[in-house]
Amino acid sequence: MTRPLTMRSWLALATALLVVATWPDSGQSLPQGAPETVCDTLLPYHSGGSVLPQNSVSPFKVETSSSTLGQGQTLRVDLTGVPAGLSFGGYMIQARNRNPPHQIVGQFGPARDGTIKLMNCENSVNNSATHSNAGPKQQVLLEWQSPVDFLGQVVFNATIAQSYNEFWVGVPSQPVQIVRRDVSGPSLPTLAPTPNLGTTRAPYVPPSYVAPNNVAAVTADPIYNGCGQSKNCFGFPDGCVASKSCTSITVVTVRGDVYEFEIQSGKGTNAAYVAVGLSDDAKMGEDLTTECVPENGRVNLYSSLTSASPYAAVRSDVNQNSARLLDASIVDGVIYCRVQRDVVTNVKGRTFDLRNGKYHLLVASGSSLKENSVGYHDIGRLPSAQSINLAEVQDLGGSSKLLVQLHGAFMIAAWIGTTSLGIIFARYFKQTWVGSQSCGKDQWFAWHRLLMVTTWSLTVAAYVLIWVELKRAVWHAHSIIGLITVILCFIQPIGALFRPGPNDKKRPYFNWGHWLGGNLAHILGIVTIFFSVKLPKAELPEWMDWILVSFVVVHVLVHLIFSIGLCLNHWQVTGMASERHLSQRANTFQMGDISHHQQHGMRNGMSMERKMDAPYAAMRKGLLGVYSVVLFLFVVVLILLVVLAPIEQFLGKS
C-alpha cells in the first residue's frame, strides 16, 4: 500500500518539474523565452548560480549584415553555429553601447512567423529579443533598428544555450558603427518608435569587455613602419606621422609601375569613411579621390572626382575599375584598406599620370554618408604642403593655412569690429564730447575716421592675401558678395575726399550717398561672413552661425537704444528752443526789434548748444563702453574660430 504524498513531497515534486521546465537537458529552453528579470545578467533563468556558463570558445557566433549603419536604419543579425548546422535551443540578445555606461540601444523587429519574442528591458520597448519556442534551431535571423539619436559603436551580446548545462553568456558580434546619414531619396524602412522611459538599474558591462587598466599596452601601428624611408606617409593633424597618432593617414608605396595606397582612419573617430585625393593645387576641386567606405559588413572601394562649389565627390565621373581593392578591414571602428591604382587615369578630359605627374596628397575623413557619395569631411582634412612625384620618398608636411586664416581674421576685425563701432560714432556721437578735439577734429569724427581707415586697410590686405592664396578666381556666394563689399569699401574714402563744404547745396546728396554706401557695405560684409561658414576650405563649425546671429541681435538692439535716445534729445532741444523764443517775445517792447531780438537769441541758443553735450550724454558714453567690450569679445571669439579651425580637432587635442 502506497503512502499518500505529504505537503513536503508535493513541494519537492513541483520544484523538480519547474527546474525541468526551464532549461531541460534535452536542449530545449524555457518554452516562452527568457524573462525580463535577466536583462542585466543575460544568465539563463535556471542557472541561479548553481550552473555556471561555459568558459570555452563559443561554438556559436553573432554576425551582422553591416559594420556601418546610419541612424534610424535597420540591419540583419544572425545567430548561427560553427560549424554550420549546429543546433541550439534558447537564446537572448541585446545591442549595447560599446562605451560606458554600456546602455541597451536600438530595438528589434518582430518575426513574421512569431518565432521571436521581444523584451522590454530597462523600461524601453523591444530592445532585447529571446526565443518564443523551445525547439532546436540552427539559425535565427533578427532585424534591428539603430537609434536616431545615437552615434558611436554598438556590440550585440547574446546568451546561447545548447543544453541545460551548456550555455555561453555574452557571445559578442563585431562592433557596428552608427553614423549620421544624409539621404535625399526615398525614406528607409523603420520599425515602430521606441519610447525612452528611463531606467534606475545599474549599468551592465558586457562580459566580453575588459576594463582599460587590464588591457596590455598597445603596440605601435605597423602602418607607420618605413615611413619616410621606403614609402611616403601623410596624415592629419599635421605632424602626426612622427608621433604615430594620426586621425587619418595615407601611405603610398611604389614598386616599379605598381602604385599602392594604404588608407586608415584613427581609433575613436566614428569615421564613416576615409579617403585620399590627388590634387594639382592642394585645394578642393578636380581631385582624383580614393574612398574606403564600410557598407553591408565589408569595406568597399570607390573612386570619385571632387568639386569645390558645391562640395561633392562624384563617383559617376570616374571609371571604377581604375583602382582595385587588395585588402580591407574594420576593427574597433578603425577603417583600413589597401588599394592599387592604375598608373594613368583619364577623368573628364583630365589625365592623372602617377608615373610622371606631381600631386599634393589630400587626406580626409567624415562621420556621415550621402546617397552614392561620402559626406562632409567633418572629422578633418589636410593637403600636403608640396606636390611630389609619388615614387620619391620624403617627409611630408601639411599645407599652411596662414593666408586663409589671416584673410578671415582681418575681415572679421574689419566688418564685425571697426566698421560697427565707426558707424555708431558717426551716427550718435556728433553732440558728445563737444569742445574736445583730436588732431584738430571733433572727437566723433576723429574716431570715425580712424576706425574706417582701419576697416579699409584690413579689407584691402585681406583681399590681397586671398588672391595670393588662390591664384585664381573662384565664384560662389561668398566671393561674389565679398567682391561687392570690397568695391564699396574702396570707394568710400575716395568719395569722402571730394565731399562738398558744409553749406554747399550738394552736401545733402553726399551725406545720403556716404550713409547708403557705408551701411550697404557693412550689411554685405556681415552676409559674406555668414557664407564663409559653409566653405570647405574655412573648416568652420556650423554653430558659428549662431554666434554671428547673436552679434546681429546685439548690434540692432544697440542701434535701437541709441535711436530712442536721439529722438529724446531732439524733443528736449526743440522744447528748450521754443521756451527761449517765447521768453524773448514776452520781454520785447519795440515791435520793430522783434525779428532782430529773435534771431539774436536763437543764434545765442544754438551757440550754447554747440558748446555743451546734448542731453543723456552720460547714458550714451556708458552704452558705448558696454557695446565696445561686447563687440571686442565677439571679434576675439570669431577670430579664434578662424585661426584654430577646425576647432573640433583643436579641442580634441587639448
From TrEMBL:
PROSITE patterns: CYTOCHROME_B561 (PS50939), DOMON (PS50836), REELIN (PS51019). Keywords: Electron transport, Glycoprotein, Iron, Membrane, Signal, Transmembrane, Transmembrane helix, Transport. Residues 24-193 form the Reelin domain. Residues 243-366 form the DOMON domain. The chain crosses the membrane at residues 409-429, 450-468, 474-498, 510-531, 543-568, 624-647. Pfam families: DOMON, Reeler. It is found in: Membrane. InterPro entries: Cyt_b561/ferric_Rdtase_TM, DOMON_domain, Ferric-chelate_Red/DefProt, Reeler_dom, Reeler_sf. Residues 370-568 form the Cytochrome b561 domain. Residues 1-29 form the signal peptide. Its cofactor is heme b. One of its GO terms (cellular component) is membrane. Belongs to the FRRS1 family. This is Ferric-chelate reductase 1 homolog isoform X1. One of its GO terms (molecular function) is transmembrane ascorbate ferrireductase activity. It is a multi-pass membrane protein. Gene3D superfamilies: 1.20.120.1770, Reeler domain.
